[in-house]
Design a protein that fits this description.
five-stranded antiparallel sheet
């Protein structure tokens, strides 16, 4: 008997990503930014994840620029310990890439937006599928955020947030 193969969300609520974006300095080259704490998919075996969020630019001195959100993935796992492409560590910390080529090879672009030369604007990232480089979500993943708006991001923690929602497939 034929069944139905459909996507579903195993949890009602989204889960917050740990990433400290308060007062994140601008990077004219978009090579300097902040990485989130890595998320483990070892137990959940999610097929995919949607990531959404918001970022607020600073209260003064904002110039036109861009904000970018990238996904990172563990490149290998040995004895349960993930290794990430340099300079990613899997911790809520700053990261600086040596060149655009290195960043573009190590990360997957998720979302970007042009920043207007206007202070105190919130930029919303709609739910975006992460989907790992193999077509399914890999065991460990996270995000990297950078911007080039000249001024630092808002210094209020509640002005920035990123969440994810787990996606599974069900055969009924």
């Amino acid at each position: 008997m034929a069944g139905l193969n459909k996507l579903y969300y195993p949890a009602t609520d989204t889960t917050a990503l740990t990433i400290t974006l308060t007062s994140l300095a601008a990077s004219s080259t978009l090579l300097v930014g902040r990485q989130s704490t890595a998320q483990s998919n070892v137990s959940n075996l999610d097929e995919d994840i949607t990531v959404s969020g918001r970022i607020k630019v600073g209260a003064s001195g904002v110039a036109a620029g861009r904000v970018e959100v990238w996904a990172y993935f563990a490149r290998k796992v040995v004895s349960g310990t993930p290794s990430y492409p340099s300079p990613i560590t899997g911790s809520d910390a700053g990261a600086t890439f040596g060149s655009s080529n290195v960043k573009n090879c190590a990360l997957r672009p998720l979302w970007s937006a042009l920043i207007a030369a206007t202070n105190d604007i919130v930029y919303e990232m709609p739910p975006t599928l992460v989907n790992g480089p193999t077509g399914v979500l890999v065991p460990y993943w996270g995000i990297f955020v950078t911007h080039s708006s000249t001024a630092a991001l808002s210094s209020t923690a509640a002005d920035h947030e990123f969440h994810f929602r787990r996606v599974h497939r069900q055969y009924t």
